[in-house]
Protein 1
Amino acid sequence: MMKILTNTLAISGEILDIINHSKNYLYLMSPYVQLEKDDSPSFFIEKISDALRSAIRKHVRIRFVSRASDDNTESQAEKILKEYIERGCELFLIPNLHSKIYCNESKVLITSMNMYLHSVLNNAEIGVLLDIEKDVEDIKEYIETLITDNQKISKADVKEKPWKDKNEAKGFCIVCNNGIEFDPELKQIICEDCVEEHVQYYKGEYCHFCGKKGKKYSSSMPACKNCWYQYKNIREFARWNSNNP
């Protein structure tokens, strides 16, 4: 079946649906990307971001394909997608990329629209949605051919997040690695989604402080050795300082 989409709300809705219904893999090809909030209405950004985090929790292999910078500096996509790359997604940078394609195992959207809020709110865009198996496979083959021999950025290429002290409100769920409010008392160390899924005993494999994957973490030891050492030093200093004004 082929379906023509003639407005940005329908196109963005299909992008969201493709992400939500991905099971094994997901290709998101957009020369320009915006997934950070600004002063504009952020419903699109919030929904896309939530859907991507959910796909990561389901262990979907997510590959972003975006435009390489013209002057060999850090591309816009590298900055915007750093959070997702750190969580295991891959980014491929293609010089002079202009194609916009969104694809999972069952359907593909070929469109004029970037995954960019300005495009959703202001542009006249069009898209073609395909769900015929051969068409999906042909588009997947096109994407994989395009990304071959081009620059790939993965988790190994991104600097590890620095340890956050207790005054910075950024921590990580030890179960799924979602960003959550940092709890200096280490009582709330998993996100609401994992609480709702009845995760038992608060056990996971991500450090609550830096998000680094490692051994099994729990409520009794929610941090890697490096973060735990720094955390203990700060707590001990704070305790000493309060006793020695």
Protein 2
Amino acid sequence: MRTAIWCAMVMAVSPWCYGATTDQQSADSPPQGQQAPQGQQAPQGQQAPQGQQAPPQDQQAPQRQQVPQGQQVLPPAQPGVPPPATRPPSAAQTEAPKPAAPGSVSANDDSFVIGPEDGLNITVWADPRLSGPFLVRSDGRISMNLIGEVMASGKTPAKLSKEIEELLKEKEILRRPQVNVQVTAINSKKYSINGEVGKPGSFPLVVPTTVLEALVNAGGFKDFANKKKIEIIRGSQRLKFNWNEVIKGKKTEQNVLLQPGDIIIVP
């Protein structure tokens, strides 16, 4: 009798316990569409929320900057270690080479012969009393302190340097003199152009110059110039020059090199 009563009680209590357990599980699980609390990670493989874009593909790691050719690459600075000092470029590297002055002739150049009205710069080592600029007079001489008159015309700068050194030794002014002579102005070698040209006058004959080049340097011809009857007076000679023939390549032997003292006449 007791066994039957216990069985009936168990059967009555079992449905009630099962319903309570189901209600507790439904209460613990979050509703559909609700996000997990902040701080909890999404399960692996979960995609990004809709509307949020992935980072662009062109955002790559920064590339290494190229160093210009010839520039020194310094090692990365370390904390507590001063950077290495860089040496500034020397003056020889920064300054461009200076071209030689036009018309200047070195003392060792034996191709140039000094003449009247040429400008000279004479330097005597360790003696500024004898150094300085000099102008060759019309008689071809120069006047130097402690030496006197020295003939300069008709000599090369190197030959004039040797003669001045010998004079300093003979007069016992210096025991071992060192003299340097430079030509600073060439006025003895000239040619002249007169007549119907743009710029008549005298011109220095520093480099070899032909008659055609001299006429171009004079600014060309005026409107009524006779280009067929140009003459070059060279001492007692009179040379003919026809501009129209020479520029056409005919009788080019007329286009001679000028000599000091030549005079070109354009009628």
